[in-house]
Amino acid sequence: MKVIVCGAGQVGFGIARQLASEQNDVTVIDQSPQLVRQISDALDVRAIVGHGAHPDVLERAGAASADMLIAVTFHDEVNMIACQVAHSLFQLPTKIARIRAQSYLQPGFQDLFSQDHLPIDVVISPELEVGKAVLRRLAVPGALDILNFADGKVSVVGVSLEEDCPIVNTPLRQLTDLFPDLRSRVVGIVRGGELFVPQSDDQMLVGDEAYFAADVRDVRRTLGIFGHEEKTARRVIIVGAGNIGLYVAHELEENHPGVRVKVIESDRERAIYVADRLKRTIVLHGDGLDPELLQEAGIGETEILVTLTNNDQANILSCVVAKREGCSRTMSLINNNTYQPLMRSLGIDAFIDPRGTTVSSVLQHVRRGRIRGLQSVHDGAAEIIEAEALETSPLVGKPLREVNLPDGILVGAVIRDGEVIIPRGGTEIEAGDRVVLFARSDQVKKVEQMFRVSLEFF
User: Among 111, 335, 359, 393, which has the minimal tally of Cβ within 10 Å of its Cβ?
Assistant: First the structure.
């Protein structure tokens, strides 16, 4: 597939890296010679210095023969015009744009991004995607990461294994005997920074991070088995009242009336603006690093502090100060992935990677075959894919133990007639089933092939 990526920032780099690693023909456009040089040196892609919305630049990038344009520059208007030019001049089939300004996304203006106006096939809003990720983790305390599939029937949850975890050093095959009615399955393990898809004889160790797929009704029970029985927070402090902070506070007000929310914002005008748009939330003007302000906000009685500013260092330090002042748990927004290995040693319980969240949203619309949902985990080291099984799929019609899946791919759940099946060796997948798989990034192409319609089918 031939793809043009407009924008070589963190999101553009992440998309280009993932697509190039899967042998796609990728061209990246950016106005910064430095970013173009960096991406050209690091990845097997073609990189062009230029304005992503200019027709001559798109022509040089091969827009006339491209299959897809992904516009993720820092400017919404550039992304929109790039899609318009690609459509009007080059009839480029699929156009994806990142749109950050919430004004464009209001329900009353939903016809803006249509073939008759601005022909954008998929609009990605990073703020909304990150805000939803924050809310999912607030709803499931103890989880490092939580991703939902199959219309919310299946969750894939990341969890850390601490000293008090009762199932460390236990072969995974024994977990089925110990908990025969548990509707969950370990599908991935991160150890020493490296992710692998486990075999039945593998064990989990203290310090590992594990991903399990589960029927959503058994997520809490599975977390308890992993030693995590934290209660849902009833008192929340949010540091940073930008678009994400406002969205999270508003959703908590609307859908969780029992939760008491306080917001801390350093910009006075923004604090006033947000206070006018929230009903029950207390908005405090000040610095989230100020211990006195945190005490005034009741940090000692707060179950979780969530830092959502644009400054990674401020987010991290606010979490550290909050823990020192008696806050039970912390969650931080982290843009720079070099900080991520430090999170556990600093006592930060969970973090959100906005780049990874946005990249996952884009890749979901890039995948071929009957792909229904997709999320990247561990900085793109693996993907969780939801796909519909067709009659021609090699997975259909025989027990999974006989399918001989490649190393690095594991079926986590099967959804049939609305019911979740946690697969075992004797499970047979039927045509029409929705299958949730955990796949190492180097095996994603094979997953796509498993769910692609064969010409013989017609």
Answer: 111
